[in-house]
Amino acid sequence: MRIVLVGAGLAAQRCAEALRASGHDGPITMIGAEPHAPYDRPPLSKALLQGERPDLSLRPTTWHSEQGVALRTGVTAVALDDTLHLDDGEKLAYDRLLIATGARPVELPGLPGALTLRTLDDAIRLDAALVHAERIAIVGAGLIGQEVASSAAARGIHATLIDAAPAPFDALMGPGGGHHLQALHERAGVDLKLGRRLVTVHESAGRVTALQLDDGSQIEPDLVLVAVGVRPATAWTPWPAGIPVDPAGRAPAPNVYAAGDAAAPYDPIAGRHLPSAHWEAAVRQGQNVARAMLGLPERDDVAPFVWSDQHGVRIQRIGDPRGADPIGDLTYARDGRVAAVVLMNQPGALKAARRRIDTLIKEAA
Ligand code: FAD
User: Fold this and answer.
1) Crossing angle, helix 10-21 and helix 279-293, to 10 degrees?
2) 115: Cβ below 6 Å to ligand 1?
3) pLDDT tens digits, residue range 26-35?
4) What's the CATH superfamily of 305-364?
């Protein structure tokens, strides 16, 4: 059975590992658009922006050749029918195909010279720009914007975090819980412009010189980062908004699967297929697809998990607080059952919180 994995990131790598660990000894080809072997992204907005040079590789450099996985970097998939079309003109035949091409940052037009952060090369560019920066404006206070603000503050750079939503930190911390994170940013000197929109952009010599907000305030950054979210990198497939998948990762086409930020499993809270776009989901989905490709049974569902490091605090969220009600500090319930718990610098409490929520998910299934 010829297996092709498109995207050489986290989900594809974990899928390849699970295929070999489960006994698949046939050919595996991994196609990646970037020039790098699979690497880990979370440190890009954390350690890498704070002067560290962490080893980002998901496996030692010899892993792919030792495991007989043909890793082809710098090659982009451009179309899909019953074969996979690559940008070098090659057409690859497959018996099973995984699409794990991740996501791309949403860009905002009209902000010349603004950076985004998704890849290692983006992070190197941002890190180099921060060397000379005294003031960074970050448009979008999602997880990436928050972490870059935190890393900039740790470097002594004045960061302004702008978001149109009045309480953007609730998305990570749960309804009403965002004030904990807001306080961390404020204590670290991050200037928060929440519930504010950009109205005018002043530019000179191909870069932004000033941003005017709808409250009349003006920011004069020497660097702008746009962090207003991501879109699945699936424009080249029949499913440009993300690949709808079933719980095993099967796409609506024969022998095609998807995992990670490119995949859109059914989201019962939103009532539609939506990408989950978090690290642990990409790992689990990549492993699940390997099982499905080999005809092995699905694993039990577990609670979603996301973490973030900001201003020296590790935030860990187990479960999904969307649409849930707070029943205690950073604890949320839906339909009378605990739905999510957020921990701040309490790694010791993680195991018990996970067990509690996983049990409830199994009971509800
Ligand atoms: P990716 O890791 O993005 O891999 C996809 C790969 O496919 C990329 O290398 C891409 O270049 C390649 N590709 C794209 N299109 C094509 C094509 N057409 N042909 C071939 N290759 C293609 N999550 C957390 O839970 N906690 C965190 O603290 C956290 N921090 C993060 C910090 C940063 C800066 C970023 C960017 C993400 C962070 N995440 C975090 C999210 C997490 O890293 C992602 O959810 C995860 O990487 C998704 O894995 P993936 O395999 O789906 O996609």
Assistant:
1) 40
2) no
3) 999 999 999 9
4) FAD/NAD-linked reductase, C-terminal dimerisation domain (3.30.390.30)
CB 311 within 8 A of CB 187: yes
Choice from 6, 10, 98 to test ligand 1 binding pocket (greatest atom count within 8 A of CB): 10
Nearby residues of 271 by Cβ (< 8 Å), 6 or more positions away? none
Pocket test for ligand 1, best of 143, 146, 231, 311 (most atoms within 8 A of CB): 143
Third-level CATH fold of 3-104+230-293: FAD/NAD(P)-binding domain (3.50.50)
- Predicted model pTM: 0.96
Q: Phi/psi of residue 214, each to 5°?
A: -75, 0
Render pLDDT for 133-191 as a digit per residue (tens, 0 to 9). Answer: 999 999 999 999 999 999 999 999 999 999 999 999 999 999 999 999 999 999 999 99
Ligand 1 contacts CB of residue 7 (under 6 A): yes
